Amino acid sequence: MSKKIRVSIPTVRSILNELIEEKLVLITGIGDSSGGRKPVLYSLSGDAFFILAVEMDQYKAKAVIIDSLNELRSEVIEFETNINDPEFIPKLDQAFQNLLKASGIEQASVGAIGICMPGLIDPQNGINQTIKDQERQPVAELVSKHFNVKTYIENDARMQTQGEFVFGKARNTKNTMVVNWSWGLGLGMIFNGDIYQGSNGCSGEFSHIRMVENGELCECGKRGCLQTIAGAKHLLDIAKQEIGKGTISQLTNEFTEQTDKLTIADIINCAQKGDELAINLINTISKNVAWGLSILIQLYNPELILLNGPLTIPKQYILITIQQALQQYCLENILSNVRIEISESAANSGLRGTAVMVFNKLFSSEVSN
Known about the structure:
It is a single chain. The protein is 41% helix and 20% strand. It has 14 helices and 14 strands. It has a five-stranded mixed beta sheet, sandwiched between helices. The chain has a five-stranded mixed beta sheet with strand order 12-11-10-13-14. A hairpin with a 2-residue loop joins strand 11 and strand 12. Helix 5 packs across helix 13.
């Protein structure tokens, strides 16, 4: 530590003693000696400071308070919002106050806010370029001004990847891809042990690879994107079509007169009960996902592709279908090197990854300077 911050050892000891008195640093034990006196081991106190981590998706957001040891110190709460919601900051404020009240943590102890969200994110400037209202694109600046706290934003898929890389199945991997399979297909990439951002932070737009010439119109304004044949909306659309035809199914029995109430969870539940139509629908979009994954495998030769998100719940159906389709689409000597797995920590991977991102920002020499 003395060498790192370029001050004398007595000064470092004096500073550490002051931090210990203020309960910001703890002595955690004695290390092994490499010759001479055994070193004293220090650690931040879990209560040294806190951050607010927020993860947004298409229709809602999750928020939690995390301590300086990256442990969750409050419940995770959800609230309805989206990246184009003009009331996002007031809703976030209300969620924040609820978390503070429930956890007993003082707002002054929260030293930073991290937000991961869908869209084309410029993390250096804190801008989400996908937000329609340009005045609300500088998310980090607007949130920071409202709460008077440093705020950082990142892409949701990259932060889910960060969470898997530090805490989940992607740990200790070098070349891994994490796909968040929901309304779209977010992609986070680990290349040579680092999270890949791209030249301006816009890497990983897997959803918007064009797959079908003159296909269905995508929300991005272009036609035939992977999202239009493999996302949650497509699954709902083809389910409603089959219900409209009167196809024999539990789905038809329950939703013939109310297809507007049909949800992804309903389709998945029917599939897990053995409903043939529901299983076939999930198989259909799984084959389309495999089509997209085959492109990634052929281009990047990853060791692991980790799937998370709500559409991975019926894993007994999707994994077999994807593996079979990849056998058809990929070269064997490339495919044999990659594992396709389902995340076991997807529920909070985005929140945990966002916390890691914030800690890296706070403790980086770039920020300090």
